[in-house]
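Sequence decides. Consider this:

===
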Amino acid sequence: MKRFENKVAIVTGSGGGIGQAYAEALAREGAAVAVADINIEGARSVAEAINAAGGRAIAVQVDVSDPDSCIAMAEATVAELGGIDFLVNNAAIFGGMKLDGLLTVPWDYYQKFMSVNLDGALLCSRAVVSHMEARGGGVIVNQSSTAAWVYSNFYGLAKVGINGLTQQLSRELGWRNIRINAIAPGPIDTEANRTTTPQAIVKQIVQTLPLARMGTPEDLVGMCLFLLSDEASWITGQIFNVDGGQIIRS
């Protein structure tokens, strides 16, 4: 029996990149997956590929910065797939993001950025909690980043917020039998990374890693599946680095 047979997962930002890898891995393990993305064409492409491979998936358009859109995402998942057991909060503005400082970034861009990259994880979590409770509990995995521990302007600030959100929500969700943890990737070889981050900086970072290579989306999949599984049934409120040794915390 596959690990997630009869389970239903939502993966936000799964129309490509890391989110796509999470969605496909969950489907391989037997979960029905709501491929949720603001880019509905990308979401449909991923869902169609999952279904063609023998899995079960639907495409759902969502703007994670919009409370009503998050609620509609959850309701569509329940209506079409029967419930919600897992949420992976992966959606974020990264590909094509502005490279600017906290003191100089235009305020309207900063507010939009944070509404997606931080508030979006909370809004999606709020939208699914009652549906998870109806199933007897559930699991949430947030996407953090090693940017939370190094200077990364407002992107890093948002990831600090994701870590705090993970820790704070663990207190509110535990008694509902809902666990929440976060994954903090190091440099990952995605199209968004290749087109957004200056590659000279990426190369410099990779050269300093104990495991001196770029990570891949597949490197993150094992941790995500573990945290969603019953093997992690007594783990909540934690942030797990998957980063080639970039950040060492004592």
Remarks:
- The mean pLDDT is 96.
- Residues 153-173 form the longest helix (21 residues).
